Amino acid sequence: MSETEGDRAYFAAAEAAFIARRGTPFLLSPKDFALLKEWHALGVPLEAIETGIDDAFTKREERGATGRVNSLSYCRDAILSAWERRAETSIGRGAGRAGGEPLDSSAALARLSERLDSVARVHPRLTEKIESALRSLDRLARSRKPAGEIEASLARLDRRLSNELALALPPERRVRIDSHVEALLEKVRVKMDRETEEKTKRALMRRTLREELALPRLTLLGE
Question: Rounded to whole angstroms, what are the CA distances from 1 to 4, 7, 35, 189?
């Protein structure tokens, strides 16, 4: 299938975002464009790519890393994470809360607990796994940690809970989710390398599981 004007605009904008954060002129490699085509085929929005690139470079700067980043694949994990966030929140491009209001971690954790409790009531088979997550949320609420540390803990808990719930699902339901994820991956015209495929598959699995169970993403940022 030939590229449309929209396709070219998508690729050009992603390339521009990468070059802007890299800070020097750069031409994306064929492997980089293959990644972009895969993301485009999967429906990863341009905003998630731009946010992920920005996140990856910001974290790199915070670590004081030196040298140049010479591949878009460096930002892959951050882009997939940004895609998941955009699917579950309504905060746009991560610019923060409306009106610049301070983040109330306790209230956000309480809301997450309420929503997880609701999921457990609808899906009793998953109660044990969800109750474990609720205990973790309670410990975080009492920890008095800064919001940034709580958010990092939530990200780890979110991945763990998604994996545990997927394994706890009835076999027929898990098969249906697996089939849906495989169908999404089939949309990708360019073959991914194994590492990229596995990371993308895990991101799609978490996203599909949330849709299937009305499961909230565990984050302080809210919806």
Answer: 9, 11, 17, 10
Give me 215's structure tokens: 């499961």
Q: Where are the domains of the chain?
A: 5-88, 101-213
Contacts 24+ apart (CB under 8 A), 72-76: 72/14, 72/18, 72/28, 72/32, 72/35, 72/36, 73/31, 73/32, 73/35, 73/196, 75/18, 76/35, 76/52, 76/196, 76/199
Q: What pLDDT tens digit does each residue of the chain (223 aa) get?
A: 456 777 888 888 888 888 888 877 777 888 888 888 888 887 888 888 999 999 999 888 888 887 888 888 889 888 888 887 776 553 333 334 434 445 688 898 999 999 999 999 999 999 999 999 999 999 999 998 888 788 788 888 988 999 999 999 989 988 988 888 888 777 664 566 677 777 778 888 888 888 889 898 888 765 4
d(CA 197, CA 36): 13
CA 11 to CA 3: how far, in whole Å? 10
* C-alpha span between 45 and 10 (Å, rounded): 9
Compute the half-sphere exposure of residue 52: CA atoms within 13 Å on the CB side of its CA: 25
In the numeric block, the tokens 């299937």 are attached to 212
Q: How far apart are CA 117 and CA 18, in angstroms?
A: 41
